[in-house]
Amino acid sequence: MHIRVVLPVIGETLIEHVRSEVLAWAAPDTKVDVISLERGTASIESEYDEALSAPGILQRIEEAATDGVDGVFITCFGDPGVHAAREIIDAPVVGGFEPAMLTALSLGEKVGIITVLPNVLPMLHSLARRYTIERRVGTIRVVDLPVLGLEDHDVLIERLFEQASDAVAKGEADVIVLGCTGMLGVAAELRDRLAAAGHKVPVVDPTGAAIAWLESCVRLGVTPSRTTYMPPPAKDRKA
């Protein structure tokens, strides 16, 4: 099985970190490659950033289709370009939001999302409405760290714990979802800290949920439904 991970930002700084995280979740027989964009933004923290990244994402999807990969993970919790990508490739494509939330909905009644910054909140509320799960989202909170500031592990864990424990204590969530795929390698530690504080709740990592979803789709031989629109080959399109 060959999964391509599209890092929907420019630059190569994060590629090896993302590769290590994905390989930690993937099955031993799954081949993984990670590629960033040729054009786009340094991070996605708003709908404006998402719009700027879309052409670069779709370029990578076209390449993935040509290369015959078995599945694609666009590694961002905002699901940028996911639905457009599904129109141009005969393989399952997923972002971070949908698989993480569907997993969470099977583990608890109220889902608490903890994301990066306040300006991301409209994007996540919009996604919840699109997937018609807004009534199951008990709270969406922030750690007030930009995506490119998440490398400070200790600060990230402390702020995640503060927000998650308060949400659980107030009855706003009985399962926690990490609301950014840049929150690498912290799910188990947060879960253990919450349990030690008397809050034994699941913590869903969006990268883990996405990889498990893709591998399941490939093994089951299924691809998500798409619209009937299929764009012509790139060579035949008008400028």
UniProtKB/TrEMBL annotation:
<protein>
    <submittedName>
        <fullName>Aspartate/glutamate racemase family protein</fullName>
    </submittedName>
</protein>
<dbReference type="InterPro" id="IPR052186">
    <property type="entry name" value="Hydantoin_racemase-like"/>
</dbReference>
<dbReference type="InterPro" id="IPR015942">
    <property type="entry name" value="Asp/Glu/hydantoin_racemase"/>
</dbReference>
<comment type="similarity">
    <text>Belongs to the HyuE racemase family.</text>
</comment>
<dbReference type="Pfam" id="PF01177">
    <property type="entry name" value="Asp_Glu_race"/>
</dbReference>
<dbReference type="InterPro" id="IPR053714">
    <property type="entry name" value="Iso_Racemase_Enz_sf"/>
</dbReference>
